[in-house]
């Protein structure tokens, strides 16, 4: 029998073998995922160029491609289903898809094509046309695309343009911004939804607009003011946003449509989807881009109201802004941006912070959206939650990017390879159902997969971009960008901030994380991530979501309501019962 000191115990050897095997398997697994990401990146690049090259062949310089007939549509002033009025005989389109593709070309490393496109736009694009355009869509697509591309073109570090660039894109953006200003000339400061680029607001123009239409202008117009030194653009957008905020209900909820002349709500029911979605998105992004704490305070109040009144399990329904009572139990494809907002990451080596940080809630909702995608192969425009079926008249899928966007943000917040698998499934579905010889076609009916002859510009601006960044985020390395609702990157610059929030100053990040509040507070109110905030002592409760405020005592005993916190899931305030325990005793 060997001496105990003469050899290593068998169980230690076994643990060593298991440990080595685990390390090898883990390394091999990482290698396989890396290979998968490269493979999928190349597939997305092929998708983008298939769409882009067909546009350039069959539709340029018009606005968008009709891939089935290999023709074009001038849709800049058709956005919102209204057509171009008084079409000039020499009008050849605004090259909308080209403008929307500029930052995607840079992200995919095609500096040569980017330079060529900038040169063409600088010489040929003009907004001096008798065209009635949708202010919101023209702002996020054209103004945002031009401002973003100007910043990329003028960045000396990138050296994207080898020849001379004399701020031509900024000049075009400023010209367009000036043509927007007449829309804001209302008693309320809320802008008209439609404006004529040549003549301003026309007589008899509709006074109805959406919450998104007047509350989602601050990023593009604010950036334009910072770049030009002309404060009129940011002032107009901010005045409209503040007026809209003053119209919220006592529950901190908003309606969907309103009258810009009277400031009265027209549609009181709303959710987080069409007509409202980007309003919430721009509150938090404006805080990051411009450093105003007002934006964060507005977002915090609005976000908690959404979680309290719209959320039902993993889904979000619509509700009446006055009472909070549910109105429509339906999912819309535009809602799929919400998980990305909850888990949005400022994706760079400098900051690397989850902005909202409600990753658990985001993951839960994302999986429900993806389950509907898997059910049909794509995401229908509207899905009836109470009947678990597609809406009878809104069965279409126009190549929307929102699910891909949320998948990108959730992967970078969690590094969970599940999201790589989701991205792969999205890519495969798009190639299988929507790719045609002339580009990528929208789906008219998700139950039959009948195609529609339209390739929207946002397919190149957003869908392909977010899928590409999911698999290859090298463009973001060492940079800090905020992506607009149309996917155009704007840099976070300290000289754009009135006061850079402490939570976004790298040197202060450790201080913010370690700071203990004098009063019990949520991660959101402290502007830090729930995973890294409030390093609680032994026996204390963990912070489970951005709105979660722990009870004063670990055993949940209490003498008064002030000793109770906020529920992590519903974001509702807990109260003290007669028996002396904190809980959700009050029905809302």
Automatic annotation (TrEMBL):
GO terms of biological process kind: carbohydrate metabolic process; endoplasmic reticulum mannose trimming
Keywords carried by this UniProt record: Calcium, Endoplasmic reticulum, Glycoprotein, Glycosidase, Hydrolase, Metal-binding, Signal
Enzyme Commission code(s) on record: 3.2.1.-
Assigned protein family: Belongs to the glycosyl hydrolase 47 family.
GO annotation, cellular component aspect: endoplasmic reticulum quality control compartment; membrane
Cross-referenced InterPro entries: 6hp_glycosidase-like_sf (IPR012341), EDEM1/2/3 (IPR044674), Glyco_hydro_47 (IPR001382), Seven-hairpin_glycosidases (IPR036026)
SUPFAM superfamilies, alphabetized: Seven-hairpin glycosidases
Listed cofactors: Ca(2+)
Protein name from the UniProt record: alpha-1,2-Mannosidase
PANTHER family assigned to the protein according to its UniProt record, in alphabetical order: ER DEGRADATION-ENHANCING ALPHA-MANNOSIDASE-LIKE PROTEIN 1, ER DEGRADATION-ENHANCING ALPHA-MANNOSIDASE-LIKE PROTEIN 2
Compartments, record wording: Endoplasmic reticulum
Entry binding sites for Ca(2+): 485
Signal peptide from the UniProt entry: 1-26
Primary location recorded for the protein, binned into one broad class: endoplasmic reticulum
Active site: 137, 277, 381, 402
